[in-house]
Amino acid sequence: MRGTLDDVSDFNEMVLTEFRAKNGVVTDAAPFGDGLVVMHTVGARSGEPRINPVMGLPDGDGWLVAASKAGAPDNPDWYYNLLAHPDITVETGDGTAISSAEVSAVDLKGAERDSAWERFKAASDGFREYEERTDRVIPVLRLARR
Questions:
Q1: What is the pLDDT of residues 16-49, one digit of tens each?
Q2: How many domains is the chain built from?
Q3: Does pTM surpass 0.70?
Q4: Domain that holds residue 50
């Protein structure tokens, strides 16, 4: 059974609290380690600021993020926010400091997306499980520094 929106909000708040307290390392709320990317997006319809912690994989001077939503049948809202407003700020940390970067999101397609998705599955069995739970192709985006 999927959690409620309040459960997701509570989880995100726990992750963000630990991220800030440990300079970007999250191990108690979830096993992100220093692989968390905190995206500061703008709502696609509302125009309101949003904050979304997601696992990010380093990719050159940027990051890859997967819109997995734990294998739900639909994409996460932040995915549509990035399509509507691709220029965002992200925060990352290494345990000693949190830094921010201005990035542009690019929705990967075809072989480029497939190759990036394989990296997520190699990084965590959870992503393989998410893929098995859903019929949709899970989007992968590159957050490239501007």
A1: 999 999 999 999 988 899 999 999 999 999 999 9
A2: 1
A3: yes
A4: 5-145
For residues 69 and 28, the answer to whether their CB atoms sit within 8 Å is no
14: part of which helix (H) or strand (E)? helix 5-21
pLDDT tens-digit series, residues 80-112? 999 999 999 999 999 999 999 999 999 999 999
Quick one: which of 45, 25, 68, 40 has its CA closest to 143?
Answer: 40
59 sits in which H/E element: strand 49-59
- 9 φ, ψ (degrees, to nearest 5): -60, -45
Contact between 105 and 142 (Cβ < 8 Å): yes
Structure-block tokens of residue 27: 């191990």
CATH of the domain at 13: 2.30.110.10
